[in-house]
């Protein structure tokens, strides 16, 4: 393979542009891969289209982060009707994990099996929970997960404890937790990835977390626990502001020969032995579609025609219950309820997962506040709000997909499905709150602010380059290698054949570790 030379641009890279391994993206998949492959001694290049999020006072400013979208990608996509929208996506070192809430739960054992839902069937995975179990444990250690085994009624089997003890509930949250227990439900400590708040000389107080970057670098994200660890090795290099435009194959079409990127408006080509695509389910699919050539007319590695299809992002809703009792909590994201995950006596189909959110403040819901109560200030609402998040499974539909228009712009086609379970879960949550010591609300009718997360809410994106054993119906094998291209791996939420009803991050991290172990033992 010919060795190319870099153009004259300001890069801290060797003149020779050949790398043993190139990892594209630094989120939950790419950052984890980088940390686990770094000790191999192989020459590794990490390409990230964004830069580092600066440590600045605006990191924790609600108006800057939420209303002005300071750290969100300045990018426009199209919906199914070609209407433009701004996706809730972040291009930076660490990817979307810089802004996530670090709720790190394993899929349930049944999530790996075929599951019947009210709206259809969730397909079985080509691997079992047991195949991923040891890597889940490694991922929990890597990302500092707090939790308590045996407390979640639906949790998969595990003999080892969580790396860290559960985060303590603040008084108002503990009161709510106890009241929910009295209803006969089984609330449990939410597994959260964050360094031990009591460690170090100066303990820190958890506060701005969900949706905020963390300048203390305490949150378990793939920048701090992945990329930063990888860069301690001299064989690993990171190039930021590098937009990968295409993957170029050799004359056979069976192997990627080079990665074509644009850095500061300069075209750069790197030759490579193995490529790991980890751009997130939407952008990874877009990259493969952009990389179509004579051997791969429908997109690179897309003989199955599944690339870009089966997009999922969960049915998610946020709900604020306004209680008469004040809630001075700083960090409320410490427990969850899974009693209705697979259904109950009233509804035999899965409903999903309920968890607390990080405490809201008035600015967060300025645009969504109802007009039903003149003089009912946002400050008063925030001071009395209990913040909840609900996740239900959406089902893979081949018509829910990522495509590109003629200009190469991303078009995200998505029609909601399997909504009945989510509606039932919302009713369960309302019942739970109303009967858990919150009978006396500001208004007799009870005031709820409920918001279904729209198309732009792409945080839980998955499914667009599904893995499986049959090359006719899947794009990747069970180690996330392309069926069609010998040296291409896709390691982000793309590989999911179903979405389950928990945050996909820990499963992406665990799979990245599994793939890294496979590469080290079988390929390198």
The tally of helices reads 9
The profile of the biggest β sheet is: 7 strands, mixed
Global Rg: 23 Å
Strand content: 15-25%
Order of helices and strands: EHEHEEEEHEHEEHEEEEHEEEHEEEHEEH
Number of strands: 21
Poorly predicted residue ranges? 1-15, 439-446
The residue-averaged pLDDT reads: 91
Q: Helix coverage percent of residues? A: 10-25%
Q: What sort of overall outline do the alpha carbons produce when their principal axes are compared? A: globular
Kindly report how far apart the N and C termini lie. Answer: 18 Å
Structural class: alpha+beta
Give a verbal description of the structure.
By secondary structure, this protein is an alpha+beta fold. It has nine helices and 21 strands. Strands 1, 2, 10, 11, 12, 13 and 21 form a seven-stranded mixed sheet that branches. A six-stranded antiparallel sheet has the order 8-15-16-17-14-20. It has a two-stranded antiparallel ribbon with strand order 3-4. Helix 1 packs parallel to helix 9 and helix 3 crosses helix 9.
């Amino acid at each position: 393979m010919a060795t190319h030379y870099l153009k004259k641009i300001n890069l801290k890279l060797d003149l020779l542009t050949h790398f043993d391994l190139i990892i594209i993206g630094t989120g939950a998949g790419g950052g984890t891969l980088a940390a686990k492959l770094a000790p191999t001694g192989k020459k590794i290049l990490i390409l990230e289209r964004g830069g580092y999020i600066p440590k600045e006072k605006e990191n924790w400013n609600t108006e800057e982060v939420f209303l002005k979208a300071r750290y969100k990608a300045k990018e426009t996509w199209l919906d199914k009707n070609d209407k433009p929208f701004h996706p809730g996506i972040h291009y930076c070192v660490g990817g979307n994990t810089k802004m996530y809430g670090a709720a790190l739960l394993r899929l349930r054992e049944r999530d790996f099996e075929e599951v019947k839902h009210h709206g259809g069937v969730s397909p079985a995975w080509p691997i079992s929970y047991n195949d991923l179990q040891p890597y889940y444990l490694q991922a929990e250690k890597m990302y500092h997960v707090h939790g308590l085994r045996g407390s979640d009624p639906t949790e998969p089997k595990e003999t080892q404890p969580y790396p860290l003890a559960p985060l303590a509930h603040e008084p108002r949250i503990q009161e709510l937790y106890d009241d929910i227990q009295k209803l006969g439900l089984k609330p449990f400590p939410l597994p959260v990835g964050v360094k031990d708040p009591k460690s170090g000389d100066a303990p820190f107080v958890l506060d701005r977390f969900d949706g905020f970057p963390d300048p203390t670098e305490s949150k378990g994200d793939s920048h701090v626990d992945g990329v930063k660890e990888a860069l301690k090795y001299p064989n690993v290099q990171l190039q930021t502001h590098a937009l990968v435009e295409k993957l170029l194959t050799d004359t056979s079409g069976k192997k990627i020969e080079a990665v074509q990127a644009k850095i500061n408006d300069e075209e750069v080509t790197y030759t490579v032995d193995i490529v790991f695509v980890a751009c997130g389910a939407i952008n990874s699919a877009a990259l493969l579609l952009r990389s179509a050539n004579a051997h791969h007319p429908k997109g690179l590695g897309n003989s199955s025609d599944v690339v870009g299809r089966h997009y999922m992002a969960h049915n998610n809703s946020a709900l604020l219950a306004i209680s008469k009792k004040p809630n001075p909590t700083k960090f409320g994201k410490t427990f969850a309820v899974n009693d209705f995950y697979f259904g109950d006596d009233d509804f035999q189909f899965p409903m999903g997962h309920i968890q607390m959110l990080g405490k809201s403040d008035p600015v967060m819901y300025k645009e969504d506040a109802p007009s039903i109560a003149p003089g009912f200030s946002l400050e008063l609402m925030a001071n009395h709000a209990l913040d909840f998040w609900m996740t239900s499974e959406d089902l893979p539909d081949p018509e829910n997909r990522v495509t590109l228009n003629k200009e190469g712009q991303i078009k995200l086609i998505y029609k909601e499905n399997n909504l009945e379970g989510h509606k039932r879960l919302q009713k369960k949550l309302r019942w739970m709150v109303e009967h858990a010591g919150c009978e006396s609300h500001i208004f007799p009718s009870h005031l709820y602010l409920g918001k279904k997360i729209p198309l732009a809410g792409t945080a839980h994106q998955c499914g667009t380059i599904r893995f499986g054993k049959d090359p006719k119906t899947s794009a990747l094998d069970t180690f996330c290698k392309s069926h069609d291209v010998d040296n291409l791996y896709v390691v982000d939420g793309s590989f999911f054949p179903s979405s389950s009803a928990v945050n996909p991050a820990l499963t992406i991290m665990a799979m990245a570790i599994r793939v890294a172990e496979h590469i080290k033992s079988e390929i390198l």
